[in-house]
Fold this protein.
Amino acid sequence: MDKFNVNNEGWVRGEDSLSSKWRDVNKACTEFLPIFVDIAEHWRSGCNDDDIYKSVEDSYMSQYEKAFLYKEAFFFFLRDHPKWRVPKDPVGKAQEKFVNVNDVVGESQGDPVRLSQDFDEAELFGEIPMQRPMGRDRAKKAQKNRFLRTQVKNKKHCTAALITIKTNLDHTLNFNMLIDTIYLNQKQFTKKMFVKIIVFLILMGFAYRIYSPTYIQVIPPAINNDDAYSNLSPTSAVVEANFTVSGQIPVDDHSTYEGSPICDVFTGEWVRDYTSPQYTNNSCDTIEHHQNCMKNGRPDSSYLYWKWRPRDCELPRFNPKRFLDFMRNKSMAFIGDSISRNHVQSLLCILSQVERPVEVYHDEEYRSKRWFFVSHEFTLSVIWSPFLTKAKIFEDNDGHSSDAVQVHLDEPDSEWVSELGNFNYIEIAAGKWFLKTAVYYENNTIFGCHNCKKENVSEVEFYYAYRRALQTALDFITRSNHNVYALFRTTTPDHFENGEWNTRGYCNRTVPFKNGDIELRDIDTIMREIELEEFKKAVEDLNMSRKGSSLKLFDTTRLALLRPDGHPGPYRAYHPFDGKETNTYVQNDCLHWCLPGPIDSWNDLLMNILLNRQRKKKKVMNLTFKR
């Protein structure tokens, strides 16, 4: 039992809850075993372990309508137990070696567990091996094949059960006579019930004629109590930030009157919330290594127990099932830098608790990706475009540059421009990349640079380039003939203290700031002012054009500013202090967010905006119908 003294969140459970936890593990693994054996024995040769395990998990999800949460427990402990032992290892493991269980669940103590010799060490340390994605059509075909195999298996089980029943009954009475008797008795019973129902309806008709009024009032169906959005009354409905028509910018006066449907959901505070995260590093396998703080050994977990509370309204928690239903037969893309990728991974982890997506595309550097949710026909993409305009970048994955970036400020990036017509929704953003050394082009001609120190090239401040790039990107969206619902996300401040990312800066705070404790740095203030100004111009242009697109402000700057505790810090690397002295400095990440972490709350805001748009469309349709 001590080996299972770990819950889904990755920390030690109390002794009082171990017995209940073991029953859950026991039941789930007992259900999982026959699916695993059946698929492994019939799997074609040449496939690796991950292919088989993924197929088994998908079949388990399809059959039991829930995710299998005990993969490590099953494969590292229970599969060698007599109760679950497989007679012949279907996956064909080689010799085994010992690895500590902490390497899997991110704890500081644990018993050694057995892993096969061919266990992918890159997988253990969070690096995903480069494999060709399955593709959308193959994903559909694979799901259909798994469904057919499950149907055939169920039919075999039913046939075997009937044969067994018939064999046992033949010892006492004729099987066919028994079936006939049951059928006749059921037929007589059905006739009697039918007569009773007819008589009951006739009597109800007479009663209605005597006692009821002259009209019928249809009572609306009851609302599902599990749906937090549907439970709100009209006066306390989920409300949207202060923009109404095609993304009108927030007004300066944030005050609201009682019962007002207007609320700035981006103004509020972080409050304690002891609800568990919607996923963990165990239940989501798409977390990038640098943001996998629990697996990388971060010792504290208090940063997980906060939620964003707007000042003047309620903000329900993100509902992944409702979001997927809303996005059925649609597509959405996150366009920008690594913060956009950080956000889409947060969204992906939450959605995968309802349906496991299939990765159908990635570029050579794994920066741009696309996933497909087969059951909902929903496509989710992330497109890496840190400048939003055409740019040639000479930088590795660790941020080290070999030359200045070449940025064409007047030409939008073809990486997302060529795909815009395929998307129903986009979230677009830029920011910190404009602080890097860069050479700027307009009309394919160099007109200046930022911090490049080249002869005969004028120095251009970063804020000019940032404004010009935003103008180019937003102008393309507002002038496009394709109708798209666009969210423009504001800048994300970092929390480096006593230096920057490359000058020994660090972040070691463990609680959020309160309002008034911190203000934006000058650079972030400048970028935010530029964003609001260019957003306002773009909305005005869109309204004048009378096109069908919408542009909304996704103002996460204040939310991010108040959370210095939610960054990986030194735990961007796996157990960074192992084998080192306590005062040894390691590079910190004080810009991106741990997963799970504060960025998960951005999805609450995202769903709020999208559902309010749906309510407004329905309201307009109802008013039109009444007229």
